[in-house]
């Protein structure tokens, strides 16, 4: 839900403006309407913004660029030396002084490599060979290019010396990392405190620049918004200030911020709403609908109770701070919720770590009675798998719910007269579906259904083709209605079919999990021993971890798409609002 707001306009003496802003910041309940004018020209603000970016950059990296560059340079030198060590290892240990002495005595050594199959003994002395390459030395005998041999230049250090170089570089790396740790210990908290101070300075400057100057500079005019339940506290503070203020309800043209007010369960999914965009003040908060459906879609895509139990465990460890994963920081609660949903839905689908519980003889028959496979005949409705039909039914319901929310929301925002076309489409689609369902269940006769469908079509056509916009030429309205009809006819079918992915992903995950189980069982054999048991455990563990990771990726992306595209499009959700961020310390 979206908290109701009041719009405040403050008129303050310029001489008392700074003191008023201080009191306003102490109250910490007013979202000030910020303006872009003057921001680029204000040197103090630009300096603070640059310092904030610098501090955030340093804190994000964990150290200044100079210290990090030292570590990176040493790591690059270690990697290059290791590569050189591998290249030089085949030539063995040697003394450059003795090589120079030989050269002075008239013996010039040259070092070559060539394919092993092409090497000839008369070319030189073979030093080393592997599966494909021969390494050899010639004495006063440079080879022509047509032999295909490639001459090599030796490093000034032999293999043993390069190993010592790597040891020395590792010491430098330890020292460089120790300097970073010492810097972090001495400076991190200071920089965090400075960043908070700089951000407060930025907020102050932006709010100061967002006022209008009136009465030849003697008055300051400022606008802001306050949640309705905090207006009493704000007005109590204003009673002791030398300022005049007006409070009114926000208008549609106002950039009213939004403050969400949801229960503990719905708050878990507010992060998903934020990924798309926050609702406008006049819109419905989509989170109460987005949350349960995303949970259901995710669970259907996972389709395995065992994986759900693992997600509960992982989410609990993250929530308790026992498992540190940066990308999942603060998401332990939603992971646990998704795990619970996956465990319940996975059980109903009969999946448990790739095992089909519905067909398992050892699983109690009494526990199978609630599974989806009991629907229809042998898990099928007509010629189609029951899970496929269920996915399509969920899709139809989801889209119809979106269209209902759109009709109600648009009516509240723009009035019933401006939304007759929306109500016409809702009546046509939902009314027709209900009539067909009632006919299929024999609650109404076929003749009554025909009459109902004709009435529904006639009333819907008036809204869609004739009254879609009042005061406009009827021919233009008809043309607009025909265009809407084309978009609906082509769009709705594709939207509904998109929900088949819920069935496909769950099916694919279950089949892949079963394949790993089968592969592990084959390795285990009929007469298992310690070795086959180890192989079985490794294959099953690796397989299910891999399957869980892929399943979670698909179960996140595809339900998110169904929510952001199919649902939000049919719900008319805009998502261009701004969060309520009060001016406070």
Describe this structure in words.
Helices cover 59% and strands 10% of the residues. The longest helix has 51 residues, at 159-209. A hairpin with a 2-residue loop joins strand 12 and strand 13 (384-385). The protein has 585 residues and is α+β, with helices and mostly antiparallel strands. It starts with a strand and ends in a 14-residue tail after the last helix. The model has no long low-confidence stretch (mean pLDDT 88).
Give a brief outline of the structure:
With 585 residues, the chain is α+β, with helices and mostly antiparallel strands. It has helices spanning 17-27, 43-61, 65-88, 96-104, 159-209, 231-238, 264-267, 270-276, 287-302, 305-319, 332-349, 386-414, 420-440, 446-466, 474-497, 500-524, 530-571; strands at 5-13, 31-32, 109-115, 125-129, 133-139, 150-152, 212-214, 219-227, 243-248, 351-352, 355-356, 380-381, 384-385.
Number of strands: 13
Q: How many H/I helical runs? A: 17
CA(first)-CA(last) distance: 26 Å
Shape designation: extended
The residue ranges in which pLDDT falls below 50 over 5 or more consecutive positions are: none
Question: DSSP strand (E) fraction?
Answer: 5-15%
The secondary-structure class comes to: alpha+beta
Helix content: 55-70%
Q: How would you state the average pLDDT, rounded? A: 88
* Element-level helix/strand string: EHEHHHEEEEHEEHEHHHHHEEEEHHHHHH
Largest sheet: 5 strands, antiparallel
> Roughly how many Å is the radius of gyration?
36 Å
């Amino acid at each position: 839900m979206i908290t109701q707001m009041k719009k405040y306009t403050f008129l303050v003496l310029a001489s008392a403006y700074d003191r008023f802003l201080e009191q306003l910041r102490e109250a910490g309940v007013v979202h000030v309407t910020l303006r872009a004018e003057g921001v680029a020209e204000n040197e103090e603000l630009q300096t603070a913004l640059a310092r904030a970016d610098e501090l955030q950059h340093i804190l994000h990296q964990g150290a200044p660029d100079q210290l990090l560059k030292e570590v990176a340079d040493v790591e690059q030198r270690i990697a290059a030396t290791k590569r050189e060590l591998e290249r030089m290892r085949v030539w063995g240990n040697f003394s450059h002084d003795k090589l120079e002495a030989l050269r002075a005595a008239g013996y010039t050594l040259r070092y070559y490599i060539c394919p092993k199959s092409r090497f000839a003994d008369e070319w030189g002395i073979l030093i080393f060979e592997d599966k494909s390459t021969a390494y050899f030395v010639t004495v006063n005998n440079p080879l022509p290019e047509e032999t295909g041999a490639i001459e090599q230049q030796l490093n000034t250090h032999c293999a043993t010396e390069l190993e010592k170089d790597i040891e020395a570089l590792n010491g430098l790396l330890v020292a460089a990392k120790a300097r970073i740790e010492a810097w972090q210990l001495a400076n991190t908290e200071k920089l965090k405190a400075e960043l908070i101070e700089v951000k407060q300075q930025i907020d102050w400057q932006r709010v100061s620049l967002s006022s209008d100057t009136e009465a030849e500079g003697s008055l300051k005019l400022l606008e802001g918004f306050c949640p309705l339940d905090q207006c009493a506290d704000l007005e109590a503070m204003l009673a002791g200030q030398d300022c005049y203020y007006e409070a009114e309800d926000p208008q549609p043209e106002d950039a009213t911020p939004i403050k969400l007010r949801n229960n503990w369960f719905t708050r878990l999914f507010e992060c998903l709403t934020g990924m798309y965009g926050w609702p406008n003040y006049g819109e419905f908060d989509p989170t109460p609908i987005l949350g349960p459906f995303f949970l259901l879609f995710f669970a259907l895509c996972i389709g395995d109770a065992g994986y759900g139990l693992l997600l509960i465990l992982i989410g609990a460890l993250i929530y308790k701070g026992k498992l540190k994963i940066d990308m999942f920081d603060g998401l332990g609660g939603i992971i646990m919720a998704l795990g619970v949903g996956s465990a319940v839905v996975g059980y109903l689908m009969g999946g448990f770590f790739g095992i089909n519980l519905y067909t398992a003889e050892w699983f109690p028959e009494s526990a199978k009675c609630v599974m989806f496979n009991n629907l229809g005949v042998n898990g099928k409705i007509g010629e189609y798998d029951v899970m496929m039909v269920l996915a399509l039914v969920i899709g139809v319901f989801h889209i119809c719910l979106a269209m209902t929310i759109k009709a109600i929301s648009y009516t509240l925002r723009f009035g019933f007269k401006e939304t007759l076309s929306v109500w016409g489409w809702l009546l046509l689609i939902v009314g027709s579906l209900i009539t067909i369902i009632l006919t299929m269940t024999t609650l109404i006769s076929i003749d009554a259904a025909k009459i109902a469908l004709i009435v529904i079509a006639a009333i819907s056509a008036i809204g869609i083709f004739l009254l879609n916009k009042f005061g406009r030429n009827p021919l233009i309205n008809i043309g607009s209605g025909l265009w809407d009809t084309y978009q609906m006819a082509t769009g709705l079918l594709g939207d509904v079919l998109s929900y088949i992915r819920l069935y496909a992903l769950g099916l694919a995950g279950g089949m892949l999990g079963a394949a790993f189980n089968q592969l592990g069982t084959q390795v285990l054999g009929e007469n298992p021993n310690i070795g086959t048991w180890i192989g079985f455990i490794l294959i099953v563990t690796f397989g299910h971890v891999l399957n869980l990771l892929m399943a979670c990726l698909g179960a996140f992306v595809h339900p998110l798409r169904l929510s952001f595209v199919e649902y939000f499009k049919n719900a008319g959700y805009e998502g261009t609002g701004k969060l309520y961020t009060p001016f406070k310390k």
